[in-house]
Amino acid sequence: MASEESTEVRRRPGEIGKRIAVAVLMLPLVALILVWDAGASAVLFSAAAAIGCWEYYRLVFGTMPLAAWLGLVAAAAIPLVPALVAPDQVGAVLFAIVGATSMLTWTTHLFGGPRPIAPERAGHITAGLLFCSVGLAALSALRTGKDGVAWTAVVLVSCWANDSAAYFVGRAIGRFKLCVAVSPGKTWEGFLAGLCAGISAMLLMRHFLPRYLGIDACVALGALSGLLGPLGDLCKSMLKRAYHVKDTGRLFPGHGGILDRIDAILFVAPAVWLLRTTVFHP
């Protein structure tokens, strides 16, 4: 037991170093794409959805059957829709993509099998593409709309601040477990630190946001991220625990797969988009 604990202690600094190195390399590139163009941002979100969907299907199926490729293509297409389709047609196109994918998935199993587990597989195809793409489609819609860069930053900065604070504070002083059955490493101390960090990040970047977002709005958006972000993280962890894996992939050293990086965004972005379209519209 002592040797296992010492090995874990030695491993942690290396993992933290990898996380920091990946963040230093990737964040400027992501920021450049987001600021540069809404279409390029949509392509970035599309790629993330496709990779995330691939991770999901590999996790639940072990391989990539034909129907899974249909779901992956649909997941990649969905974040592109807000940037490429007229606003009044977005809903119809998204409905067509999801509906066609569902019908093709069932038809593929009808003629190609395996029929006994067709309902389970069809359910996973739909669940995977929705889980991996809806949040990124909301992020794409935010980027495409008015004040798009600022609203995209609201989601990303608050999520990154929340995640970073929760990780480092939880490792340093975390004692009380948040949801040990799903994610043994998550603590209430980390959760509260992440919540405070999300709110603080919004307040610090307030002067870069549209004027109609005052202090109260920044606090509300930061708190929303601090609550929904960990929920997305825990739901992704629930998926991993169901299939007994540590990470959804190995794309980012020290971080895991793409789903390990965007799980909070997948839950926060739709909520922010809803508030943007119903409440914060100048």
Report what the structure shows.
The structure is a single chain. The protein is an all-alpha fold. The protein has 2 domains: 39-145, no CATH class; 148-282, no CATH class. It contains 10 helices and 2 strands, in the order αααααααββααα. The chain has helices at 2-36, 38-61, 66-77, 81-84, 90-112, 118-144, 148-173, 188-204, 215-242, 258-278; strands spanning 177-179, 183-187. α2 (38-61) runs antiparallel to α3 (66-77) and α7 (148-173) runs antiparallel to α8. The longest helix has 35 residues, at 2-36. The protein is globular and about 55 Å long.
Task: Return residue spans where pLDDT drops below 50 for at least 5 consecutive residues.
Answer: 1-11
Question: How would you sum up the major sheet?
Answer: 2 strands, antiparallel
Helix content: over 70%
Average pLDDT reading: 89
Order of helices and strands: HHHHHHHEEHHH
Strand content: under 5%
Order of strands across the widest beta sheet? Answer: 1-2
Distance between the termini: 60 Å
What is the count of helical runs?
Answer: 10
**Class by helix and strand content?**
mainly alpha
**Number of beta-strand segments:** 2
Query: What is the count of distinct domains?
Result: 2
* C-alpha-based Rg, rounded: 20 Å
- The coarse silhouette is globular
